[in-house]
Write a structure and sequence with these properties.
Strand content: 5-15%
Oligomer: single chain
Number of strands: 10
Helix content: 40-55%
Structural class: alpha/beta
Length: 333
């Protein structure tokens, strides 16, 4: 016997929401999904009228849904935003080159300007070249650090007011778990912020902060959105994968675990006597850093000197190692 939509629209339900357990028809699911993201945007005051917003676009499900929903909500609620796509080409053969084809198709479909920046262009290294040097154990460290800075560089070139990223509820819960396991108090405090604002940098926001990954997949599926679904060829050994597996096990036992972990991160207090790093700018590249020399510059210097592991680990150890080298001057960009 067909189950009726719990929104009482009279239609048959076609899905059960992982987040709430509600059984809904497609149209009611679309409305609930979009309304929750609209509430996240308005309650968090993520944008101002007239803002130019760069959507960090990878071609994956999260950024594709984000671009589609922001376009929809911008028109429905008159946000008066100018939306642009910003993509970073890490130089991963068989992964990023294919996903960027999807971004180019979305650019035309959503009628948004697109800017693509590559690691090769910014740093003189592609991820394929980096992995050839460092192997597959610490490659995600390089990619994460370079990608974050590359987005800042691209946003500066585009002169935008804000960067919107596709981080969803699962991503944020995983990051909370990772920072607890690593004892990283500073990042634990920042990772749950819906807006990240650092003096001298362009703000970043997470409109999908409270949106479950499963629901993003369902929305993209029923809307027939064009997205790239292959996992990065270098990702299987990533530390995040272990946190993700643990989180999925928790979700199977208790679906609300994802939101519970996020709320725990939001309400966690830091003792007054705990010293947090001061955020400033790198003395070499001028981008945000908690050290005199940022992690990106340290990693890049190690690569250029043939010492790829120089910047991996604690910055204090890397600084000592760098100081011991002849001509210990980092490259200016």
């Amino acid at each position: 016997m067909p189950v009726l939509c719990s929104a009482k629209c009279g239609q048959n339900a076609v899905l059960k929401r992982p987040k709430t357990g509600d059984t809904l028809c497609k149209e009611c699911f679309y409305w609930a999904f979009e309304l929750e993201i609209h509430s996240t945007i308005t309650n968090g005051k993520l944008f101002k009228k007239g803002d130019v917003v760069a959507i960090a676009a990878s071609g994956g499900k999260d950024s594709t849904v984000l671009a589609y929903v922001l376009k929809t909500l911008n028109e429905r609620y008159n946000y008066e935003l100018k939306l642009v796509l910003l993509s970073i080409d890490e130089g991963i053969t068989g992964y990023r080159d294919d996903s960027l084809k999807t971004v180019l198709e979305n650019k035309d479909e959503y009628q948004m300007p697109l800017k693509i920046l590559s690691y090769e262009q910014l740093y003189g290294w592609s991820m394929d070249k980096i992995v050839a040097e460092v192997g597959r154990k610490n490659n995600c460290t390089f990619c994460g650090v370079f990608r974050r800075q590359a987005l800042d560089r691209g946003a500066t070139l585009l002169n935008v007011d804000c960067i919107a990223t596709g981080h969803n509820a699962d991503d944020i819960a995983e990051t909370v778990l990772m920072n607890i396991l690593r004892g990283d108090v500073a990042r634990l405090q920042r990772c749950v912020n819906i807006i990240t604002i650092t003096e001298g940098t362009i703000p970043r926001c997470k409109p999908l902060k409270y949106t479950y990954e499963k629901e993003i997949v369902m929305y993209a599926y029923f809307k027939k959105l064009n997205y790239f679904s292959t996992e990065c060829v270098f990702a299987p050994n990533a530390y995040r994968g272990y946190a993700r597996t643990f989180l999925k096990d928790l979700e199977r036992l208790k679906p609300s675990s994802i939101m519970d972990i996020i709320h725990s991160g939001e309400t966690m207090c830091i003792k007054e006597n705990v010293k947090l790093p001061d955020i400033g700018v790198c003395t070499k590249c001028g981008f945000v850093s908690s050290q005199d020399i940022c992690k990106a510059c340290m990693l890049l210097e190690g690569l250029n000197r043939g010492l790829p592991k120089l910047g991996i680990g604690k910055s204090s150890k890397a600084n000592k190692a760098l100081a011991a080298l002849p001509n210990s001057r980092l490259l200016n960009f």
